[in-house]
Specification:
Six copies of one chain form a homohexamer. The first copy, chain A, is of the alpha/beta class. Chain A has a single domain, classed as Rossmann fold. Helices cover 42% and strands 13% of the residues of chain A. Chain A has a four-stranded parallel sheet with strand order 5-4-6-7, sandwiched between helices. The first copy, chain A, has a two-stranded parallel ribbon with strand order 2-3. In chain A, helix 2 packs parallel to helix 3 and helix 4 packs across helix 8. The longest helix of chain A has 18 residues. Chain A is globular. The relative contact order of chain A is 0.18.
Chain lengths: 232, 232, 232, 232, 232, 232
């Protein structure tokens, strides 16, 4: 994901990647998603210093809203960025990801954003090959073929105007899928990287009031020191 | 809360209370709410065995949906139970709690439940006295007075038909507030205790398909053993 | 229905059944539903005295809201109770009933409750055998088979998380249908009986203001004496 | 109401008025509204024969949808007609009627119609003088003054584009109120009379399928003979 | 269209038809729709004088809302009138028109009106024969057959209660299609002609405040003189 | 606007400004907005060639959707870009602009985008001084003071989390207003310039199917040659 994101924005920004030392290996359920949100808070608290924006590299945007409260820089989510980019390219938006049971997690985020009414098609396909570590930089042709085939059917059946490819392991598949589809395809990590550049460049003021103002004077145990310090 | 809940249901059920060893002391922000959700998962994984239902004792229902996925018994939330009970007593529902910045957390839950359209009034008042440990069983008269006054104004201004008192520290205040209001008042913990009895008694089957079927075969680090075991 | 409801709540409550002397034999249209609502008002006015709660035994909840206005005890509807119970067991709710033309009546109630957005599947099947009087306590195997088959298809096609069985003559079919479905099934009358227990036990205050306060000083002709007396 | 309606449509139609022999004298609660709906069904069954359309002369449209199912001619409601007329005159619609507790009944109808999102202002004022029988054809000046004053405030406060005057006893007040308001005023009975002309003239086919097809083969007791005959 | 509209209202009104000297020949895209809206403003400004109401004869209602602002008489749209008429005949409304890519334009209007929730079925079929100039007054049998076949399928598949035939070239096809459908069919131009009669007869006051009050003191170039004069 | 936009994106893009030779001087009504949309189509058709993205410099986004259909590059609107940027900075969004009668035009766009539910506050103030040509680069202090004062009140009254400053003549006022507000302020033109960079860089494929595919084979008169050529 880091490689695809950096390639997308080129010299417009320098991206630094960090990974949680603990937590779920992959997010494939509500339970893992909740644990991932806590892990994202720890990472955000530890690494935001000195950055212009934070890009949250998890396809469900787990932890996005609390991070916006905790940090004083813009925080960008892959799902949110992809959907808001899609909103600017057409009316009826579809999302293709891996795993049918992930769909409710994405749908809840679409409702949170208030744009569920724009979503005209959802598909979560089973594609174990996509989780096999790639040998190098190139996407797996068999995975690309399966994605293109399902995407084309979704676009056709639901009269979609834009298609979002969502899921960490699908980062980088857009070039292989786009030529086989008659509507624009969006890669979540590319969209998020550019939104991070755009928001970081505008340097929005931090919240000093309301429910997004950073919490202080809070007692918490069991977290890493950076998170506890920010809450203290 | 345990005392109020047990008193509410009397001999209809025996409630056993457990508290998270780590996490935020009080939930007053999105960040603490996220950490509390993870803590609730650990508790649920460790203590569900042998119970007919689980009552989640946190006013924002943090962790409610992942717990429903993780456990094979009904899980009841204080906020959800209170609002669904209120839905059966009148058309326009209001909620009074402590702390204005908590309102978005409650409102997001109301949207998740799909009943945001029923909510006709929200208030999050500042009332530090409510957080002072009580000397005994009786609610603090000054706190009750403040609640009654704010509640009466909210009912009047928004033409409310029912009022929900929400917030862990407000458990037990209903008897002191109700006589001063012209519409029914609901105490979240009483409502939740009764929903736990009702759902537990119906013994709904566990999910064997769909996104609420318990996840298995998942790798996760940094959690307690019971949670890791359930996910394994 | 009375038998199933009493069996569901056991010793938690004593249910007393009453039936309207006049009105439609079965509700299968908007017209009959309207007449049933008036009949329910007459019954409620005549029999509420001395009860802790009233359970309205008609699958469309005809008369539910006016009864809440007319009486000073909680009034519980089979449809409403089933849907609110379902809301606590999963995200995507389905309803299976008898007769396709009944669906708009149920859907209007779901909109009134404000939870139409939770409803992910509806089916109203034609099953005349279900209306044949049963010889004893056991559900008809052929009816149970047809229900299970249609229910399984609905759950699968619409990715349902919970299924509500609705319709007076379907009371008691849950045990026969549940084993063949991978998600929890709810029987409207059981759910309603438990909600009646739960609401009755909380003893919510009567409305003294707003549109649910009992009407008085109203002139009406053509009703039974108990209803006219309550309105006078 | 009949006089105002006939004057509105002039020679475009001949209106025949009928009144229910039994039922509530005035509709001021959900209970009376339910009884009025049953009475409307009896009237409709008895008098539809030979008419091109039926105009339901009750401000809450009680019985409107079942009448559409029962009869094979168009049925027009005062509230519905007024709101749909208002929709064609501006974006933000307000409604002024008598009695605050009537508002939920109107609001439920607006939700049923699916146009609740267009409603930008509601007021139900207490104006006992409006219920005093008028000596002749002229509206009472004091009532007109009160209506104009409240209407002007509602229009101003809610930036209304159109105002609906609703309530049987307000029929005929439009000429007295309009000159004092900067936006168009709609009289429910005038709007309904014209919709009845418009729908009657188009002679829409009767429903032969779906949930609006007239019910047949239904057993019902306690109604008048014409209604029982239509259902039989 | 003029012929069908005049035949529908008979002697109730005299319709005068005008056509834009410039603009798109047919509206089949968002771009042409935008140009048509500007053309409609020019026509309205030039021809409203002396009329009781204006009927906008374009199936997408292009220019409807700005015309309501610009003119001081009621302005009626074919799509809006048809849908609001349909709302009075049943619950689930469908629309059949020519050209799938027109559907988003209709759907946006349904959302603007606030009645998108009532729309239960949409179809935009490809039927080039419909655009062939007719030899006389009679609809083309082949076109009528195709319409009836598609309409019947839409009604059946989506459980529709009413069907709207939309599209300028479909004016006059209702008599040929209705006998083959089990629910009422509405012809947009007939519905609009009657709404124009109904609104014109009520003589609603012009807007003197709010966003529909006619704009004045505006500088504009590139328009015809009548439009510039109204804006000046 | 061009100056502010170019300053915002710096070397990330080169902006070229064009202005319509005809049309309304200022958009302050629906009528002018419609004429501006047609003018935007002419400009887009004439100047898109060779650009990576088009930024539509009108605060109501007039013509945005048809331009997306007409052109094969991304088209960015000031209002849409500002609101979607705001969605990434907080939950409750407010908009402050000039002229109360402009609000319905903005609100209709928010509904079209599907994010009306995120909008928590609207204000259209009268501030003629803002339309006075500025002597140089600096915003007028009196205008900035008035904006800050109204904005602070709106933020406070509606618990806003983000505030959008909308209106062509308000471009460049953000630095003067932000210090006096406790939540981030967004300048529409800055946000749009960055979205144009972000979308242009992602080089989304053009639509080859659906309702956004460029229309061809259309006959139109009265437009400039470039627009007619694109439609031909």
């Amino acid at each position: 994901m880091l490689r695809v994101a950096q390639a997308a924005v080129g010299s417009a920004a320098t991206l630094v990647g960090v990974t949680a030392p603990h937590g779920p290996a992959v997010v494939g359920s509500r339970t893992e998603n909740t644990l991932a949100a806590s892990a994202a808070l720890e990472l955000g608290a530890a690494h935001a210093e000195g950055c212009d924006a934070m890009l949250l590299g998890i396809s469900t945007d787990a932890g996005l809203e609390p991070l916006r409260e905790l940090l004083d820089i813009p925080v960008v989510g892959m799902l949110e960025a992809a959907l808001l980019t899609a909103c600017q390219l057409g009316g009826r938006i579809g999302l293709l990801t891996l795993g049918e049971r992930m769909l409710p997690l994405y749908q809840e985020q679409a409702r949170r954003m208030g744009i569920a009414g724009r979503m005209a098609g959802w598909a979560g396909i089973e594609l174990p090959a996509a989780f096999t570590p790639q040998s190098g930089d190139a996407p797996e042709p068999a995975v690309a073929d399966a994605l293109a085939e399902h995407a084309a059917r979704l676009v056709q059946d639901q009269c979609l105007d834009v298609l979002v490819l969502s899921g960490a392991v699908l980062a980088g598949y857009r070039p292989a899928v786009q030529p086989r589809l008659p509507v624009p395809v969006i890669d979540g990590i590319e969209a998020a990287a550019w939104q991070a550049v755009a928001l970081g460049a505008q340097k929005p003021a931090a919240h000093r009031a309301g429910s997004y103002a950073p919490p202080h004077g809070r007692r918490v145990t069991g977290t890493g020191a950076p998170l506890a310090r920010r809450l203290a």
